[in-house]
Write a structure and sequence with these properties.
alpha+beta; 3 domains; six-stranded antiparallel β-sheet; 26 helices
């Protein structure tokens, strides 16, 4: 017990003295922290992100990230399962999502602020402030850089494009403040100023805070340690080097073991035979040299979903790099190590396998080149080191460095002028304002050149004030542009989205039984936060049933971007219990035929296989309906179909294949598809593209609503009445009135590009068949008694002809079932994607629990880690006594 209390005390005091000084108000770290916090709030206010303002990011993050964090704390305090939740569409991805979003200690802020918008702002400002704080500490302790330049580089680091790009997925910005903290500890550990225990605590903090940030900082810290040993090799005995390496290994091992207390279920889920956690990469990279060079400049705009890395970290940083490598006071070995690090990371942007490694073999959907923060950190370290060298001496070499600095400034202005042509013709949205980039960067280069002249001329006091002023102004404006232009949205649209999501969430969360699903969609928002119950997981792997593929075959197209079903029919809504469906800003549609989570069916549900159906989702849905209710056919092909084209030509064959081509001019063209079949209240269409004649991938044309080929209907069940077929083929409901059913396919592409249809089919919905299925299944339903994260209990009466309890819970081997108190086998059913139980005739009590295998192992690892920490403490005490 005494040892445990010592471990806790050491854990709290591990970094004592790291940032504190006698006069805190004159401390560069203190100034950097509050300047960064204030600057971040100014940027957020200018972008319209304060409470009461409108911005698409506030709708995304405060309806997604903040609810994730709140739900984590709620489940933690209630002692509920952290491995599976019905809310927000997580299901088997719960442990991964919590490790990705919720574990950061900075997130504790959310627990004390009730308003989601305010919590998001404070969270952003704190992460920005911590980034500047720990970078300032690093520059002071490791680079020996103080005064105004310490503050300037700390602010530029905190306001790098990387920071503000990651704010849309705010959990990824944890790496920005963790990186300088860990590297500082490594530096002081090698110098003997920090113990292995303190280093281990720091590693554990990194691993637990955000598992990807822990991976990134951990790998980089290992290379940094090797570099330090190489640089100090001549001053260290072989025994000392061996001791440092062994202690470092012990620190990392103990940190990993302690972290397993929270990360064990994450590893189980992440490495379970792939799933979308192991997304494949394309071997080809679309990054070009001009984009790479342009990425270091100030003033880029919307940088999300581009391959171009985010390398901006201050114009002064780039100006000082050549001076550092020309400085004779810097050892050749140090220059070679930094040069090799820059070259290796630059190569990583182009080399597929290395790029995959830095992303932990997980496709970076929308947030590409996540490891670019490492290059930013190295560049600022080099620039800070050069400033520390030049400010500490006056000699001929300083004059040489100054001349190199001035030549670099001239070259930078010439490069800026040349790149202006590239910025004027490129379609990348982040370079959409070439004049701003040209004028802004040349003005900044001249400003930093003036500061260097003032310092060289002996006017250091005036220059120091200018350093801080220009650095803050440059950093704040650099953070403003990407955040502002990524969330440009009209006040009317933002108000509609915000009010729509809040009203939808209120309706769903106040639902009495809470055992039905809801699907709320619309705009460029994440719909997950307003789900009442889902259990559909982004990380559902093949090992646990091929859920995502099954949903895609049904036409529901569960997307990894929104955890939601886009598309769907009345049949799938009924089967999966989607009780509420609607678009943001419109009234919720209540589905009176939503089935509960489980109901009795026949053995036919086990014989339902994807390979027995074609690519037509209506064939798949009819097969599903027939397996649930004998001989049921819900969707019947429409006859009397007409095609009316405008501003293009189109040929559609009887089998649904075809081609659309030859736009007559730059205006959009398309097809109006109609049917005058009577007797159908609802009609649906399915359209799937193969590729264009230009290749398998089609570029997005700027300023078009969603992409190149858009499927449009005013009667769409989910979304904003349109769907981009180049990325999201799915079922869509047609407009229906007394004149028939209609659908529009609009082509926004350029003349000369042809699109091939893999399938185009229209079906009408048989309402009588749908009612029959509902009545038959609802009569033998599972009556729920209790439902909480990772647990459910209910009762069901099994009739003679139906001996299977079918549950619309995605199949997962972690589910365990008990029937009347006895263990029962959970089988995969319905395309091997959902859970089912074979039951004898009669009344039964069903209980299911979600149990991650090998949970006891996390406690074994944790105890091992604590034992290592205790031994490090005791060993440290003995060393003190011996001294």
């Amino acid at each position: 017990m005494k040892s445990l209390s010592k471990i806790i005390l050491v854990g709290f005091s591990a970094f004592k003295g790291l940032i504190m000084e006698k006069n805190i108000l004159k401390n560069e770290s203190f100034i950097s922290f509050w300047t960064a916090c204030l600057g971040c709030v100014i940027v957020l206010a200018a972008c319209g992100l304060l409470p009461g303002q409108v911005h698409v990011l506030s709708n995304d993050s405060s309806r997604e990230v903040i609810p994730f964090i709140r739900m984590f704390y709620r489940h933690l305090l209630k002692g509920e399962s952290l491995y599976y939740t019905w809310d927000i569409g997580l299901g088997t991805g719960t442990s991964i999502t919590y490790a990705f979003y919720a574990y950061s200690p900075v997130n504790l802020i959310v627990a004390f602020i009730r308003n989601n918008d305010l919590a998001l702002i404070v969270l952003m400002a704190c992460k920005c402030g911590l980034s500047a704080l720990f970078m300032s500490v690093f520059l002071k302790k490791c680079v020996r850089l103080k005064s105004c330049w310490n503050i300037a580089f700390s602010i530029l680091y905190a306001f790098s494009n990387y920071q503000f790009m990651m704010f849309q997925n705010i959990c990824l910005s944890d790496v920005v403040w963790l990186l300088p903290l860990l590297i500082t500890c490594i530096f002081m550990f090698v110098k003997g100023e920090k113990t292995a225990l303190q280093l281990s605590v720091c590693y554990a903090l990194c691993f637990i805070t955000q598992f990807y940030a822990g991976f990134l900082t951990g790998i980089f810290s290992m290379f940094f340690l090797i570099g330090m040993i190489i640089l100090r090799k001549n001053d260290m005995r072989p025994k000392e080097i061996k001791r440092i390496i062994l202690k470092w290994l012990l620190a990392v091992l103990s940190a990993v073991c302690v972290s397993m207390l929270l990360l064990w279920p994450l590893l189980v889920a992440y490495f379970s035979n792939g799933g979308s956690a192991w997304n494949g990469f394309s071997s080809e990279r679309s990054l070009d040299l001009f984009s790479m060079i342009s990425s270091i400049f100030w003033g880029r705009g919307n940088i999300w979903y581009e391959e171009t890395p985010t390398l901006y970290c201050g114009i002064i940083t780039i100006l000082l790099l050549p001076s550092y490598f020309a400085d004779k006071w810097v050892s050749r070995k140090e220059k070679m190590l930094f040069g090799f690090a820059i070259a290796a990371l630059m190569l990583s942007f182009f080399a597929g396998p290395v790029y995959e490694f830095w992303h932990l073999f997980n496709r970076p959907d929308g947030y590409t080149s996540r490891f670019s923060i490492l290059l930013i950190f190295i560049c600022i370290t080099i620039a800070g080191r050069e400033k520390a060298f030049s400010d500490s001496r006056e000699d001929n070499n300083t004059k040489v460095a100054t001349r190199v600095y001035e030549v670099t400034a001239v070259l930078m202005m010439l490069i800026t002028a040349c790149l202006y042509i590239y910025w004027s013709v490129t379609e990348l949205s982040s370079f959409a304002h070439p004049l701003r980039l040209l004028v802004g960067n040349i003005a900044l280069i001249l400003a930093w050149l003036l500061i260097e002249r003032l310092m060289a001329g002996g006017r250091r006091p005036a220059a120091k004030y200018l350093v801080g002023l220009i650095a803050v102004a440059e950093a704040v404006t650099a953070g403003y542009y990407p955040l502002n232009e990524s969330g440009k949205i009209s006040s009317e649209e933002a108000k509609m989205i915000t009010e729509g999501m809040r009203s939808a969430a209120d309706v769903i969360l106040n639902e009495g039984d809470g055992f039905y699903r809801a699907n709320i969609s619309g705009g460029d928002i994440n719909q997950g936060a307003v789900y009442g119950f889902n259990g559909v997981s982004l990380f559902s792997s093949e090992n646990y049933g091929d859920l995502l593929f099954t949903m895609f075959r049904l036409g529901d197209c569960v997307t990894p971007f929104s955890f939601s079903q886009t598309g769907g029919t009345d049949l799938t809504d009924m089967i999966f219990g989607v009780k509420y469906r609607g678009n943001i800003g419109s009234d919720l549609r209540v589905n009176e035929r939503a089935l509960p989570i489980g109901y009795a069916v026949t053995e036919d549900i086990f014989r339902l296989k994807c390979e027995d159906t074609g690519i037509d989702p209506f064939e798949v849905q009819n097969a599903f309906a027939s397996a649930l209710c004998e001989s049921a056919v819900v969707y019947e092909q429409l006859n009397d179909i007409s095609y009316q084209t405008y501003n293009n030509s189109c040929v559609i064959n009887d089998d649904g294949t075809g081609i659309m081509e030859n736009l007559l001019n730059d205006e959009p063209g398309g097809i109006i598809i109609g049917s005058w079949d009577e007797g159908y209240q609802h009609a649906y269409a399915f359209v799937a593209l193969v590729s264009s004649q230009e290749g398998d991938s089609v570029g997005i044309i700027e300023d078009t609503p969603g992409g190149d080929i858009i499927l449009c209907s005013d009667n769409d069940r989910c979304g904003v009445g349109m769907r981009n077929l180049t990325s999201d083929p799915a079922v869509m409901e047609m407009e229906s009135d007394e004149e028939g059913h209609r659908l529009r396919i609009i082509d926004y592409d350029e003349p000369g590009i042809a699109f091939s249809f893999a399938k185009l089919c229209l079906y009408g919905q048989n309402e009588a068949s749908l009612d029959r299925i509902y009545n038959e299944l609802n009569s033998d339903k599972l009556s729920m008694e209790a439902m909480k994260p990772g647990f459910l209990r209910g009762k069901i009466d099994i009739p003679d002809e139906k001996t299977v309890l079918f549950l619309t819970i995605p199949y997962d081997r972690c589910w365990k079932a008990w029937v009347d108190g006895q263990p029962a086998e959970i089988k995969s059913a319905a395309f091997d994607s959902f859970c089912a139980l074979s039951l004898p005739v009669g009344s039964h009590e069903i209980e299911m629990r979600y149990e991650v295998p090998g949970v006891w192992l996390k406690w074994v690892f944790f105890i091992i880690g604590i034992v290592i920490w205790a031994s490090l403490i005791l060993r440290g005490e003995r060393n003190v006594e011996n001294r």
